[in-house]
Design a protein that fits this description.
The chain starts with 19 loop residues before the first strand and ends with a strand. It is mostly beta strands and 474 residues long. Helix content is 0%, strand content 46%. The strands form seven sheets. Strands 20, 22, 25, 27, 28 and 30 form a six-stranded mixed β-sheet that branches.
Length: 474
């Protein structure tokens, strides 16, 4: 079997949301927030980076910790670092911008900066962008940075309301862009200007700006990517200049495939939804959108994934579905053993639900991605827990050729059958009888399936619940 890459594309013990991919030299670097496994709040860990050769997005390398919370002089044991972005500045150094939440010594949000001579870090503290004069209209949150021809633009904003500003929610305009002085990479020399309105009463409607600013140039157009008010999607707007004005584009990806086919809303979503954040990567003539998914029945342990996208002749981007094979360059091979954690669709018999709350979903109600033990940087063992009657896990896509047997690896107290289909409403291609016990065991059934590039859906029918570890295709 050739080397393949799956979603999420990093090891399953790694919880990096808000992924911003950049090509520096001959490697792609991904920078993001750093959640803790089964964390109690957002972004509990220090920043790390991962990189891969630009010509091989299956070969990801851990670059280590690049910036610690303790390096911020305002950090006094409280506060978190949110959603970083990195640029190569005109002075040849790399600048990391990050959002910093309120702390005991500072009662407002801020965007701060660290600098390094290498995209791998380590970074050292550089300073704060003075955005407080504009904070009554634009919240200093989720920074993104773009450099072109010696000029530097910083994007930020949120439609959230936090009382630390002492203003009404109605005065927050949405997304903002300012131009920074390249001499110090901190001083605002122009702006702020609105990128995308945060109001449902604007032309954007429910797809108005919420958070998660990101900027890329493709061809002669500038693509402003952001998370919308409905939360589970990344949208885009197009402009002819880095600072706009921008025109409404549409949805690039929804982590519940909402807006595609039968998936009309959260209740009919293909997956558990919640917030998401990411940016566009262009390598040669291929383009990808990076985003994140939810795990552990809440929004505090998120993982980065990616899908290939197509820029249409008119510059627009069609919405893509979430898959298990986003960076693979095509479907996964239809033979072999695959971890269940690469399922791109997961829902209970009542459909998808929302994991974006600060409260966990009820433990017995839904299947969910999790792992054993504690937060760590080794020994991956993620699986799907609480797979009960009517639960479905979907994997997209496989290049099926002469598939004869299908297996599932499970443990628990479940007794029944795992029904395998190539569409949600299709006839079964296999029915695997399972009697799960205390140890993982693989159960098989013969399979009748046409050849082709196909999804595989696994639905449990029976009593009890199991931990679902892997599927096997023979």
């Amino acid at each position: 079997m050739k080397k393949q890459v799956f979603n999420p594309y990093l090891p399953s013990y790694e919880y990096i949301p808000d992924g911003e991919p950049h090509v520096f030299g001959d490697r792609v670097y991904v920078y993001g927030s750093h959640d803790k496994f089964d964390g109690k709040t957002f972004c509990m860990n220090d920043y790390v980076a991962w990189s891969a050769p630009a010509d091989d997005l299956s070969d990801w390398r851990y670059e280590g910790v690049i910036w610690k919370k303790t390096g911020d002089p305002h950090y006094k044991g409280r506060g978190s670092m949110y959603a970083p972005d990195v640029c190569l500045a005109p002075d040849g150094r790399y600048y990391l911008y990050y959002g910093f939440s309120p702390s005991v010594t500072r009662k407002s949000w801020a965007i701060r900066c660290a600098v390094s001579d290498s995209p791998r870090g380590p970074f050292e503290y550089h300073g704060e962008v003075d955005l407080l004069p504009y904070s009554k209209e634009y919240m200093p949150f989720d920074p993104a940075v773009y450099v072109e021809n010696g000029r530097v633009w910083l994007y930020y904003g949120s439609a959230l309301f936090f009382p630390v500003f002492g203003v009404s929610k109605n005065r927050l305009k949405g997304g903002a862009v300012v131009e920074l002085d390249p001499a110090d990479m901190l001083t605002v020399i122009a702006g702020p200007k609105t990128t995308v309105s945060g109001s449902r009463n604007s032309e954007y409607g429910e797809h108005a700006f919420f958070e998660a600013s990101s900027m890329r140039k493709i061809g002669d157009k500038y693509y402003f990517v952001y998370s919308s008010l409905i939360g589970h999607e990344l949208c885009y707007a197009i402009g002819d200049r880095p600072d706009g004005p921008f025109e409404k584009g549409g949805t690039i990806v929804s982590i519940g495939d909402i807006g595609l086919g039968r998936h009309k809303d959260v209740k009919t979503a293909s997956n558990y939804t919640g917030n998401t954040h990411g940016g566009i990567l262009s390598v040669g003539d291929k383009h990808y959108i990076f985003y994140h998914r939810q795990t552990n029945r809440h929004c505090f342990s998120r993982q980065t994934s990616a899908e290939q996208i197509t820029i249409q002749p008119d510059g627009h981007i069609k919405q893509v579905e979430v898959t298990s094979c986003g960076l693979n360059g095509g479907p996964l091979e239809g033979k072999g053993k695959y971890e269940a954690r690469i399922a791109c669709n997961l829902f209970s018999k009542n459909g998808g639900r929302f994991h974006g709350s600060i409260f966990k979903s009820p433990k017995g109600a839904h299947p969910y991605f999790t792992q054993s033990g504690k937060d760590r940087e080794n020994e991956p063992d993620q699986y799907i827990a609480n797979f009960t009657g009517g639960a479905t896990a979907g994997f997209k896509y496989f290049d099926i050729r002469e598939l004869k047997r299908v297996g599932v690896t499970v443990k628990g107290n479940a007794k029944g059958k795992m029904t395998v289909r190539t569409s949600l409403d299709g006839a079964p291609i296999a029915e695997i009888k399972i009697i799960a016990g205390k140890e993982y065991k693989t159960f098989f059934a013969d399979c009748e399936c046409d050849d082709g590039v196909l999804p595989l859906y696994f639905t449990f029918d029976g009593n009890g619940r199991c931990d679902f570890s892997a599927i096997v295709l023979e």
